[in-house]
Amino acid sequence: GNTPNVIKEIANEPNRDVNLKRDIKPYAEEVISVIRKKDPDNIIIVGTGTWGQDVKDAAEDQLKDANVMYALHFYAGTHGQSFREKANYALRKGAPIFVTEWGTSDASGNGGVFLDQSRERVDYLDSKNISWVDWNFLEKPESSLALKPGALKTGGWPLTDLTGSGTFVRENLCGNKDLTKDAPETPAQENSAPEKGLSVQYKAGGGGGDSNQIPPQLPIKKNGNAAGDLKDVPARFWLNAKNKGPKYGCGYAPIGCGNLIPKFVALQKPKQGADTYLEMGLKTGTLSPGASPGNIQVCFPKEDWGNYAQSGGYSFFQSNTLKKTKKITLYHQEN
Fold first, then answer.
1. Does the annotation mark 101 as catalytic?
2. 9, 13, 171, 195: which one is catalytic?
3. What is the pLDDT of residues 245-285, one digit of tens each?
4. 72, 102, 295, 320: which has the fewest C-beta neighbours closer than 10 Å?
5. Distances from the Cα of 238 to the Cα of 23, 208, 313, angstroms
6. Where is this region: Disordered (predicted)?
7. Are 61 and 135 in a shared domain?
8. Which DSSP state fits 203?
């Protein structure tokens, strides 16, 4: 075909009293023959029985078309070892498979989010060079939903519009490029030349190298000549939580603690100095050139109130005065 990026999937999730030899294969042969009159070589994906589970049957009785793949569906909270066994069997038989639907929830769309299981499944797919498509972007109350209610339907979503599931999927599609340098950086001095866009300062806030909470102070500044929308400047503070979920607290914010949107995200592939980040978004307001929303003071103890080893954290450095830093990463969208 003239558009090689277009992939066709026919008969999504055949189920109930459906038989490959009797139903799915004859249907696929008929439909594919019609498609091939206009499109001789684009990939066509054929659905498999039991809601996209029966790739073993397809592997035993493959279609003759040279550019056909077979759909395999799974949900992290429902399908485990059996999913891998089916995929491995199909691959051993030379049947190409494409995961055209999977989710971080259970098969109902609810339950979870099962991030540990999702990480295991996605790592498996990567190891086998199997492509995948995540479910879902529908605006309905399912835990597999990638976007928060009210997010635009036209794309261009800020990170604060993503759910925990959506954040996981984004990081696995795009890769986490925020912590690409392992070598330590020296924070820029306060009197350095203004940067274009945004800058952030940091003060340890009284927490030492080992403490049962991290209390950073984080004033953000808008540089340049253009005003900026506060909701478009989320910042990420990177830390080592060691699988002990942090709890968020706001001590003081000149713009009001209720105007902050905090979110902890555990990295599926920990980086040097971080296995978690706190993303701090702001709800509303305009930031004038050279202005700041003020010195935001938050704290986050571990759920078991154990000590953090802050000195090994990516964003931490011991400072009793505010200093500009690049170790707290900023994200912004300029008009």
1. yes
2. 13
3. 677 888 777 778 888 888 888 887 787 788 888 888 877 66
4. 320
5. 53, 16, 7
6. 177-226
7. yes
8. B
Q: Provide the domain limits for residue 78.
A: 8-174
Residue among 273, 68, 85, 308 nearest 178 (CA): 273
Evaluate if residue 189 carries a pLDDT over 60: no
Number of residues written out for the chain? 335
Question: Domains in the chain: how many in total?
Answer: 2
- Peptide bond preceding 136: is omega within 30 degrees of 0, i.e. cis? yes
The yes-or-no answer on residue 185 being catalytic is: no
Which of the following is catalytic: 29, 60, 85, 101? Answer: 101
Count of CA atoms in the C-beta half-sphere (13 A) of 222: 23
Do residues 276 and 250 touch, judged by C-beta distance below 8 A? no
Q: Which helix (H) or strand (E) holds 92?
A: helix 81-92
pTM of the model: 0.56
Q: Write the CATH number for 228.
A: 2.60.40.710
Q: What is the pLDDT of residues 280-333, one digit of tens each?
A: 887 766 667 666 777 788 887 777 677 776 667 888 877 777 788 888 887 654
- Indicate if 131 and 228 belong to the same structural domain: no
The more confidently predicted of residues 321 and 42 is: 42
